[in-house]
Queue: 2 jobs
Job 1
Amino acid sequence: MLQVNRNKISVAEHERNWHAYLRLPHLQKPQGKRFALCISDAAQLISLVLFLKEHGSSILLMHGGMPLEAALTTSEGAGCAGLIYQEPATYFANNGSAAVITDNKAKIYQFSSGTTGHPKLIGRSWDIIQDEIASYNEAIGLSAEVVPIVLTPVTHSYGLLCGVLASLARGAEPIVVTNANPKLTLALIRDFPDHIVYGVPAQLQTIAALSHGQAKLNKLMSSGMPMSVRAFEQLGQTGSKLLQQYGCSEAGCISLSTGMRSAHDLGLPLRKWKVSVASTEGESLMKGTRTPAELVAESAELTVRTGDLGLVHADGTLTYVSRLDDVINVGGLKVYPLEVEAVIAAMPGIRENVIYRGNHPIAGDKVRCMAVAEEKIQPESVREWCLKRLPAYKVPLEITLVSEIPKGATGKISRRQLELEEAVQC
Amino acid sequence: MLRTEVKQKLEQLLIYRLESETVRKLQPLEESIRLNEDLYLDSVMILQMIVFIEEDMRLFVPEDEVDPSIFGTVGSLLDFIIKLEPLDLNVAGDLGR
């Protein structure tokens, strides 16, 4: 049915998992309930997601590395009946501090926030997801024989829905790689020559470099973050077919390129989406010049402002230009400045702080922090404080303690300004 | 190779190949330093680091799952590296697959 690293999980084993779940007290009457899942074991997570889907439960997905306290707070904030933490049997019921919400239509939930406002709970019903999977499979045009090798976390939509569920839906048997050893991925690529590797650009580049002369790469699927021109060239040299998909939490997968023509080629929108650029006053006066603007995706159910600057071409394909807001993209995982700022602001002795984006040569973006403290606080203590409350990827890479955070003419802190100043210094 | 030599090579790799400012500032690294929490190496970076260990240190990394606890600290990573065999001895074995 699927494989995790070198472990095959048969349909029989998957069914045994289900029988075990049915005996757990908290999973007796799961219909309509929301369950928060914080599980690092990919096989367990997938089995549990499919079980809960089948039984009409909603799921809140979270990163497997979330500290327990943070996972509990997030679970309660989403109106979940409870949190399943690492093991299916380890359950923390909602302690009543927040309302428990039931769903008529079961959904998959994620928290997403922006640079303004509070974290938003985004839910997509299983019906909508099934529909997305169907149009995704139609667009990607892969037969069941092509083996997906999924390098990205199955706790997020790209890995779970596109890497695993869409593969299962078309009869393919995906391999989920959770082990850090790239030599294992290389061995799997060699063992399954008719493969498609799902990753973020940095992972694909690493595997491409490693496979040089050792294994032939068949198809590569990139998503999660923009691909650099250099990465595109390096991957192009492998002779493999390059695919790229584009989406966001609210919409799921929006578009797909089955043969990338450039680093920022996002391909054609899936059947359900109509994508346009938000009209602005600054329409270019020169004929033929296209001004990048925010990509807006519309379907029968909703309109999504992606927060990405892009272009829509005459042939209907999309191109990515840049991010509009201050979201930090750490190797495909999104970090929202407001969320991290709130965590640091709660630390005793911190008067003011700002989280902004820096650049890292391999990971892409990095999380930076500038803070003003009342007392003599060391950056290490800020880090330790964050590690107890956030998954490691959200913890600032660089923490600078200052006597004052630079502000603009209006007296406001501008993350963009801080970012530009750092860029100029490098 | 002596443990100290391996540690130095590892530090060079982290500074020059992974471009880690953190390692540059903290070197010489204490063995108790944690790769993820203290050096900010996430899974994408660790993936790349293993490739550099093979390429730069000319050591053969087996094509199996590695115990994730290896990437806990500098010390546990050194324990792992010291047990690896030289790459060149294994090249023939690889091609024979």
Job 2
Amino acid sequence: MKEAVHIGPHPSSKPDLQQLVHEAALGDQDAFAAVYDAVSGPVLGVVRAVLRDRAQSEEVAQDVLVEVWRTAPRYRPELGTAINWILTLAHRRAVDRVRSVEAAAARDTKAALLDRTPEYDEVTEQVETRLEQEQVRRCLRTLTDLQRQAVTLAYYRGLTYRQVAESLSLPLGTVKTRLRDGLIRLRDCLGVTA
Amino acid sequence: MTIIDPHTLTGAYALHALSDEERAAVDRHLADCAACAQEVEEFGATAARLALAASTPARPAMREQVLQRITTVRQTPPADTTPMRAGRALRGGAVRWALAACIAAAAALGGTTWWQYGNAQDARQQAAQAQRQADEVAGVLSAPDARTRSAKIAGGAGTLVVSAARDRAVFVTSDMPAPPRGKVYQLWFDVDGTMRSAGLMSPDRASQTVLMTGATHDASGVGITVEPAGGSRQPTSKPVALLSMPA
């Protein structure tokens, strides 16, 4: 495997986020403010990538950050880094919102999906963290077109793999495989060790 | 669908791209499959990098709002159990090749709680959120300074209730016809002639009470449009109703 090049800092490499979450878990509001400063950008970014609507995204991002405060005492470092915990929560909540709205509507799935076909550039056009973005972008380029489309549709648009299959006109099994293979390549390219 | 094969679903799982049923099946499997759990953990960390790349600065006001909100939110007590997760004991690249051995490994590793946020907790959080919203709605409707304005909407009726002190508004409808298939009613605040989304109405209830999203102080009116499911960033159709803010 090629050695991953790590360009620039990103929040997960800051050693003190774990500590700050720990202090916030003990009721320290100043520590939580520092957690907020470290994670609010990525939290809002990922929620907005999925929801797109600015007002809704802010509402969900706020709820996520309040939930981080509320459930910080339950966070267990042995299950993963704090940044991963928080961003997983943020993505999950954004996806939940998209699906609850969609489930409530008897919608024309196909038309809605085509309407939502993303461009990666569109997702990241407002990105501030250029270095992180550049590395992710570079690694996304190492995926095959189908892998990249499947991963970005699922992650940045919050589609289920069934919806991904439908929007790319691919069999379900193919999409499952593409998602997994794509993540393996991304993982190795980004040097993720969990 | 007949059989869910959790091995091949690790990618979709980490990207939250599964139905609840499939997700539950993978959850059960991860408890017994150290290699799968390891892979899911790494995929989760990989997905977090996708999130970091999408980072966008939040408005300064959002910081104030969140820091204000937490002063009234009680923290959960720490979990009293300390379940071990299966993957923890196995580390290193070799584990990635052990996927095929997942089922064999099942017996050796006890049942575990894998995901930080299981279904039960999700349900509690949803209940808590519903409760918060209900409290907010009640707060607006009972505010001493609440003002109302009503209008006929598409054969039904709508009433806008605004509390300036709470800087929030509630929209109450009755006998609204269902939106066309695949469409949804979306609420908007008119802010200096620009429509700012105030949330979506549930498409399957003729009468409902909706806590509108966002502040009211800079809004001069409220509009309702019919939008594609999921809502729009900007109105894409003529409003079915427009109300000025009650004086």
